[in-house]
Write a structure and sequence with these properties.
39% helix, alpha/beta, DNA polymerase, domain 1, binds magnesium ion, Rossmann fold, binds guanosine-5'-triphosphate, 13 strands
Length: 336
């Protein structure tokens, strides 16, 4: 198809299938699908360079992407329109009112929220809780949506979903049905799962995408200094994909991350999250979790956010899930 034909038809027309896009024939559509682009939404969030392996010229790729963008209503936009896009941001409750307040009313759609901290600090528990909360109606802090859960350490437990659902008065079976679960065996597999997730997300009204843990496979597979650059490059690509999905489907993206000891720090927190600058810059909101001196109490610290001040809040993790801590919880001595 001629380039000018693409231009002409790239007005506000709506397209449902890749094959319908001007400039995309059946063979190109097939190649795009093999590369993980099954929907107009995911195509709209890609770059011309990423389409190179499909044998599409840069000029043609730009035309196709532009048409996909205008089809779903995202295009080159002015700042006032950017503000409008921000207005579509929805918020998901963490289960704790004070933690929600820390992030201005809940975890937001269209961006990545990262929870990092040492083992047992509650990263996976929060992920479980979010799986349940996202299914609540908006008036209870949910998004009436389903979940895509990428589990890299085999720590997802349906039993936890059951108890958390019961506590919120939801039917556990129904809640479990709305959690699409995938175990990732390697970092490549983990990337493959997200690269091919767009259709599943669209078909199941998924409003929450979880990767628990984002970095564990990368950390164990890419060892040594010379592997650092390729690891960061892959991680960058993976997170880029995740943001694209979160934006395209107005979904919340949550990742977890472990910490490493900082050998050269004597004051303050002597740990820092894995993944360096790449993960830090791509996670829009980073929350550092740590244990308090007593049992169920946890401390959430907002470490970076594009527009919110840093701060700390106390919450608890119990049989019921993630909740606000009472004054009594906060002062109870350990072990009682
Ligand atoms: P790693 O993945 O190992 O880095 O840790 P994590 O941060 O994901 O920890 P996780 O979310 O798995 O937290 C585990 C902790 O949550 C446990 O040590 C308990 O303190 C708490 N927890 C988990 N399940 C329950 C439960 O059923 N009841 C209660 N009371 N606490 C629980
Ligand atoms: Mg965990």
């Amino acid at each position: 198809m001629a380039e000018d034909e693409i231009k002409e038809s790239s007005s506000k027309k709506k397209y449902e299938l890749l094959e319908d896009l001007p400039g995309v024939g059946p063979a190109t559509a097939q190649k795009l699908k093999e590369m993980g682009y099954h929907t107009i939404e995911s195509l709209a969030m890609t770059t011309a360079r990423e389409l190179e392996p499909a044998g599409i010229s840069e000029k043609k790729a730009l035309g196709i992407i532009e048409t996909a963008r205008s089809s779903i209503g995202v295009s080159f936009i002015r700042a006032d329109e950017l503000l409008k896009m921000r207005k579509n941001v929805l918020r998901l409750t963490s289960g704790s009112k004070v933690v929600d307040r820390l992030v201005d009313g809940g975890l937001e759609t269209q961006t990545i929220t990262e929870f990092y901290g040492e083992f047992g600090t509650g990263k996976s528990q929060i992920c479980h809780q979010l799986c349940v909360n996202v299914q609540l109606p908006p008036e209870r802090g949910g998004l009436n949506g389903a979940v895509l859960y990428v589990d890299t350490e085999n720590t997802f437990r349906t039993e936890r979903i059951v108890s958390m659902s019961k506590h919120l008065g939801l039917d556990p079976e129904q809640v479990a049905k709305n959690i699409i679960y995938a175990e990732a065996y390697t970092s490549d597999h983990q990337m493959f799962l997200l690269d091919n997730a767009d259709e599943v997300i669209k078909e199941n009204n998924i409003k929450l995408i979880i990767v628990d843990s984002l970095t564990a496979h990368f950390r164990s597979e890419y060892i040594g200094r010379e592997m650092l650059a390729p690891r960061q490059q892959r991680l960058n690509k993976h997170m880029h994909k995740l943001i694209g999905l979160a934006r395209a489907f107005n979904a919340v993206a949550v990742v977890t991350n472990q910490v490493m000891a900082k050998p050269d720090v004597f004051f303050g927190d002597a740990v820092h999250p894995i993944g360096g600058h790449i993960v830090g810059h791509t996670s829009h909101t980073r929350i550092y979790l740590r244990r308090a001196s007593h049992g169920p109490i946890r401390i959430a610290r907002l470490v970076s956010s594009p527009y919110l001040p840093e701060g700390e809040e106390i919450f608890k993790i119990t049989e019921n899930g993630v909740e606000d801590a009472s004054e009594e919880d906060k002062t109870k001595p350990r072990g009682r």
